[in-house]
Amino acid sequence: MSKTRKTPGINGTSSADIAFMLLIFFLITTSMDTDRGLARRLPPPVPKDQKEEIDVKERNLIKVLIDSEGSILFENKPLDIKQLKDKVKEYVENANNAEDMPEKLEEEVPLFGKVMITKNHVISLMNHRMTSYQDYISVQNELAKAYNELRNELARKKFGKPFEELETEQQKAVAKVYPQKISEAEPKNYGEIK
Amino acid sequence: MGKFSNAGGREMPELNTSSLPDLVFAFLFFIMMVTSMREVTLKVKFKTPQATEIQKLEKKSLVTFVYVGEPTAELQATMGSETRIQLNDAIADIDEIQDYIAQEKSSMKEDEAPFMTVSIKGDAETKMGIVSDIKQALREAYALKINYSASLKVD
């Protein structure tokens, strides 16, 4: 073993290629998709022996029904999905405190003071068992859009910024003025004897 | 003018590429961090419905998935083409949901369990009947935070 002999340096130019191959492998096998969707909250279960009670005043209840064809009945009247958002906004806001729309009650809201809000309104969303999921989501989407627009309008009026850019506290206050209340009832079976 | 042209005697130094693998590796690790491996093999096929008002799902570790759709082409021979539910790696029935949720809940940290979200990944063509059944089962199982998985609608 002579000391003059040196170990040859390993050629490292190909390690870049290896790393690239690994990179491409991971790019293919992993999914970048962030899961997105419409978040909802279900009501807690009711005990079996107790019937679901409805103690909502008739005027506070906004009835939206989707039939198996995907057509919408809004307050028992047929309505096109394109008009649904504006109708819901009109009912939830109830600017003129109309008799047949959700009642407005005075409520103390932080940052806003006393405001009249339709805090007891409930959108009752009903569907048929044969309604397609896409139709259902489309309607849910329109409802969410109605609330988002109401909140955005209020946020712009009060704070001069869209809802998304507000501080958490301000967002809470705005959300309190327009609380999202969507009740998803069990589907109806027409013609079924209960 | 001739100032730049008489550089013929000078040679361009060779670019040192020995740090290139390090760069690529750093990039690789970044990709590995932000993406997630598909954990389950899908046995149902679904195309999520489209919507515009969608929010991001937060905290992946708290999310449980329920897939709803028709069995994949290979499975249709044995399963038929009826809409089925997939929990984890297996096709399941409605009444198995409660056990599944309870099991998922117990595998979480105790203080995180109330924040569990169930993401329903349903096919756009699915009928609401089965989705409603799932919702009822989730209510019974006290998994009240749900998320209808949807993709962004492009006009």
Explain the layout of strands and helices:
The complex is a heterodimer of chains A (194) and B (155).
Chain A: H1 15-29, E1 30-31, E2 36-41, E3 61-66, E4 72-74, E5 77-79, H2 81-93, E6 105-109, E7 113-117, E8 122-127, H3 133-159, H4 168-177, E9 182-184
Parallel strand pairs in A: 3-8, 8-9
Antiparallel strand pairs in A: 3-4, 4-5, 6-7
Chain B: H1 20-34, E1 36-37, E2 44-45, E3 50-51, E4 55-56, E5 63-71, H2 76-79, E6 84-87, E7 90-92, H3 97-106, E8 117-122, H4 128-140, E9 145-149, E10 151-152
Parallel strand pairs in B: 3-10, 5-8, 8-9
Antiparallel strand pairs in B: 2-5, 5-6, 6-7
Description:
The complex is a heterodimer of chains A (194) and B (155). Chain A is of the alpha/beta class and 194 residues long. Chain A has a domain at 63-184. In chain A, 34% of the residues lie in helices and 20% in strands. In chain A, the strands form two sheets. Chain A has a five-stranded mixed sheet, covered by helices on one side. Chain A has a two-stranded antiparallel sheet with strand order 6-7. The N and C termini of chain A lie far apart (97 Å). Residues 190-194 of chain A have low confidence and may be disordered. With 155 residues, chain B is α/β, with parallel strands linked by helices. Chain B is built from four helices and ten strands; from the N terminus they run αβββββαββαβαββ. Chain B has helices at 20-34, 76-79, 97-106, 128-140; strands at residues 36-37, 44-45, 50-51, 55-56, 63-71, 84-87, 90-92, 117-122, 145-149, 151-152. The model of chain B has no long low-confidence stretch (mean pLDDT 81). The chains are: A alpha/beta (194), B alpha/beta (155). At the A-B interface, helix 1, strand 1, strand 2 and helix 3 of A face helix 1, strand 1, strand 3, strand 4 and strand 8 of B.
